[in-house]
Amino acid sequence: MLKDLEILERETAQLVINTPEELEQFRLTYLSSKGKLSQLMDAFRILPPEEKRSSGKPLNELKAKLEDFFKERKAALSADTSNDLTIDTTLPVGARVPGSAHPIKIVESTLCDIFYSLGFDIADGPEIEDDWHNFGALNFAEDHPARDMQDTFFIGEKVLRTHTSSVQIREMEKRKPPIRLVMPGRVYRNEAISSRSNCFFHQIEGLYIDKGVSFADLKQTLYYFVQQFFGEGTKVRFRSSYFPFTEPSAEMDIWAGTDTEENRRLTKGTGWLEVLGCGMVHPNVLKSCNIDPEEYQGFAFGLGIDRITLLKYGIGDIRDLFHNDIRLLSQFRGL
Ligand code: PHE
Known about the structure:
Layout: H1 2-13, H2 20-31, H3 36-45, H4 49-79, H5 103-117, E1 121-122, E2 128-129, H6 131-134, E3 154-155, E4 158-160, H7 165-174, E5 179-188, E6 200-210, H8 215-230, E7 236-243, E8 246-255, H9 261-266, E9 272-281, H10 283-288, E10 297-304, H11 305-313, H12 326-329
Parallel strand pairs: 1-5
Antiparallel strand pairs: 2-4, 3-4, 5-6, 6-10, 7-8, 8-9, 9-10
């Protein structure tokens, strides 16, 4: 018995199994009910007791060894898919070109960061608005020309918001002063498309409501923003203006210069670029949002993102921002 065991042990020790067919052959030859191992087990059963004692342990060890070997090869073969590989894993990986943020988004988030550093939070509102949030609550008279088909895109009873000032209203309805927010987003106007203007563009709205807020606070906030964004020493001018929702109202221009053709085109040759409208929030607007104008005052501003993006990157035509031309977009890295 011990000799037979030794023979079987040596025979199986040299086996190499690399295919499922070889594995099956191994199972049939050694482990099946008529296999060599089973034959030895049968022989063992009829051995005299003293031989049983000496060969029982080696037999069991060999049995365990063969069964382990079978299991190990089976697992290895089912995990190994090298035979049907269609992908050459040795090839170098192709370089991926990472995407980049759109220049408008880069500028928008730079602006948000500047105001965030002054304590302004960021809020968001819907692009499809109702008349109340886009006009009514902002103190637009019933017959104000901005409600006219010329300027506003209507969707049934609703409008595509013509400015981000609608988000001011939504936030004042929700929050209690003090409120300090910037609200970036896309706005729509039914305007002739040219190199300077488009039928949709981007704004960032600012709103600060608290006790004792003055026009000086507004100016100082905007000065700070201009120095941060356009660089120290950038010249600014305020022109008085009119918006139904602010009183007094102003527009702010920055000196963009006349040294390049883009600048002349953007500024209509004057060198001054209009970047935002602003003013002290009209008491009627506060009342519309259930804020007492006797107790609270505030300022608001609305800044056009697209034009300052053109200026910052020296792009001559606003339409170029929306052609999705990869040759332009791939020049921007950031965020
Ligand atoms: N909503 C105005 C516009 O789109 C800008 C503005 C915002 C003016 C806030 C004053 C205060 O032109």
